[in-house]
Amino acid sequence: MDNVLRRHANTAFLWIAGLLWLAVPAIDMLGRLCLDKGDFAFRAWEIMATPEPDAPGPFKVSATFDKTIYGDLANLLNVRKFRRIRHQHFQTDAYGFRNPAAPDTTYYPIVTIGDSDMAGSSLSDHETFSARLAERLGVRIYNYAPRSLAAFLADPRFKARPPRLIIWEHVERTIFSTVFRPYADWPDDSSLPSDMPLLPPSPPSEPRLSTYWSRAVFHELRWRLTGLRPPDIGHIDPASGMLFYAPGIQMVSLTARQRGLSTVLKGIRNAHRYCRQQGITLLYLPLPDKENIYRFRLPAQRVNPQDQQPFLQILHAELVAQGIPAIDLYTPFRDLAAQGELLYFPDDTHWNAQGVAAAADIAARYIREQSLLPESGITLQPTP
């Protein structure tokens, strides 16, 4: 009798295991047939980015994303209560860059270049830095992010009619990078470095309902039962629910020498000289890390006392001394944060619409004061 029961139990177990084994690919197949990738993505970036290495731009050409999203840090944490749901409209031009459609003959006196912040990750089209600055100056601005400065300067589209001004942005924690090396690769002679894109292409992923559900359940249960968070989430501010990125926290207390100040200055100087030889003014715009601007929300034991001058202030002073146009966002952003302004998304590493608007105001004022677009035919709107 025991053998019969044991045999029936083994058979039942095999049937259940087999059905589960078949159910997982069946569920994933239903996901591919019934849902699009937008139902599995937490923001437009994952849907709009193109994996093709020879694509003209970083995103799909003439494409549109129009859905609700939440931030990259909320995606890493994957705990529902920390998500800040918002709507995003993301549209690209015929070259795969984030700009309104325009004829090929359109001239752009200003081009913005940089990383995902300059491209406008988590922002709608009208909230990007290029769109805000264009409103303030009354001129056309082309958003070339997130491709590198070297890629733009080698682009045949703009060689015949180069812009008068390039605004070159990098978020603070990537300024000295061993991966992309945007400064170390600039040669001392008057030539372009071999280009390395800011964001390497990633292979397309098919919707997988089983992976999506299991990952969500795992992170939610881990948080509820143990309070543990993924290692990339450096801190959660209990007062505001603001999420902080661990690599950003690690950068806060590093000295200028540890951040490769001499290499960074040399690279910017070489890039500035090359642009000047092409008749282009290069305006450098470093974006402070969220963790630096809101370091007062970090636990004291995670942030060493900063008894030296902040890296971005040292970098800005050195650039000014060498006659290289540069904008200081660190000081005004720290002042605005101290007044209670929220300049970055609570659940994201990137700046929000308020941060972009503040930076656009500062940049527009600087461009006017320094007369960086003095040519006839380019009329700037007066300062409000």
Structure characterization notes:
The chain has 384 residues and is of the alpha/beta class. The chain folds into 2 domains: 1-34; 37-369, Rossmann fold (3-Layer(aba) Sandwich), CATH 3.40.50.1110. It is 39% helix and 10% strand. It has 14 helices and 8 strands. It has helices at 2-34, 45-48, 72-77, 116-119, 129-137, 149-153, 156-159, 209-226, 246-252, 261-277, 290-293, 311-321, 330-338, 353-369, and strands at 64-69, 86-91, 110-113, 141-143, 165-171, 233-236, 243-245, 281-287. A 4-stranded parallel sheet has the order 4-3-5-8, sandwiched between helices. It has a two-stranded antiparallel ribbon with strand order 1-2. Helix 5 (129-137) crosses helix 14. The longest helix has 33 residues, at 2-34. The chain is globular, with a radius of gyration of 24 Å. The termini are far apart. The relative contact order is 0.13.
**How would you sum up the global shape?**
globular
CATH class of the largest domain: Alpha Beta
Q: Can you say what the CATH homologous superfamily of the largest domain is? A: SGNH hydrolase
Give the proportion of residues in helices.
25-40%
Order of helices and strands: HHEHEEHHEHHEHEEHHEHHHH
CATH topology of the largest domain: Rossmann fold
Biggest β-sheet: count, sense, barrel?
4 strands, parallel
CATH architecture label name of the largest domain: 3-Layer(aba) Sandwich
Q: What does the radius of gyration come to?
A: 24 Å
Instruction: Show unreliable segments.
Output: none
Mean of all residue-level pLDDT scores: 86
Span between termini: 92 Å
SS element count, helices: 14
Structural class: alpha/beta
Number of structurally distinct domains = 2
